[in-house]
């Protein structure tokens, strides 16, 4: 093989890489604005209205010092079976907890609900406007709530669970993976940011780029690189960082996990969620609710939903703890 033949052979081998590099550069330079506009456009979702919670009002602080508003709802019955930290959905507040956890109070669990930053009565982060995508701000909030519950509520040390809806479920999963304090996790409608955005970018690139149909043939890894770069740009502008939710979800394989998802969810498809959980999970229950849209599984499944969530927490979380008075719980803690 002479020099020219070897050079031609090398060029042929490098053509795919050159094509990908050129396409990525083109998208990042010419169509960054469209990508970011797509990412930052909120879905047409509004959290249901909810009556104010009646419970023990608590104020606690995150590691960075912001104050969060929380409410501890007491179990009904003689003994407490554990403490469940409830993480509300995007545009919601802690007052949605009763909609999702009233039946858990009947089963003997305490529920600790809180408002995420920039929501409800909690402090806001300067320069940050929440989106439907989970950021390190929400992860810090859940971490503070979990650590507060673990340190202040005696029953939580024997049985602490996390129960999150949509964005709250994604943030809860990240914290469960990082801290290891939760013994059981329920996530309803949660989603992995990077995988979802990369999939959407590939699906819609032909609508914004003149060569979109050709660019669409790039391998999925190219869209992951595109997504990572653009999320870093958005994060710098909006004063936030986006965690790798996919990694955290996969790291939950050693924990009892109940994943709930609506089959008719048009924002986050079942296929995307299934890919995240394609690895082996020892104690995972994956429940696809027929005819349910995003954040509507409890409305569609009704008592079946309530029974499954209750049975899950009773199986993996319930402990026999003496009933305790709530009046002794401090109303504000320092940094956690």
Helices and strands, in N-to-C order?
HHEEEEHEHEHEHHHHEHEHHE
Q: Please bin the fraction of helical residues.
A: 40-55%
Q: Number of helical segments?
A: 12
Would you tell me the overall average pLDDT?
86
When the domains are counted, the total is 2
Question: Going by CATH, what is the homologous superfamily of the largest domain?
Answer: Alpha/Beta hydrolase fold, catalytic domain
Largest sheet, order of strands side by side? Answer: 1-2-5-4-6-7-8-9
Broad shape: elongated
C-alpha Rg, in Å? 22 Å
Helices and strands: which structural class? alpha/beta
Distance between the termini: 67 Å
The CATH class designation of the largest domain is Alpha Beta
- Name the CATH architecture of the largest domain: 3-Layer(aba) Sandwich
Q: What fraction of residues sit in β-strands?
A: 15-25%
Q: Strand tally, please?
A: 10
- The CATH topology annotation of the largest domain reads as Rossmann fold
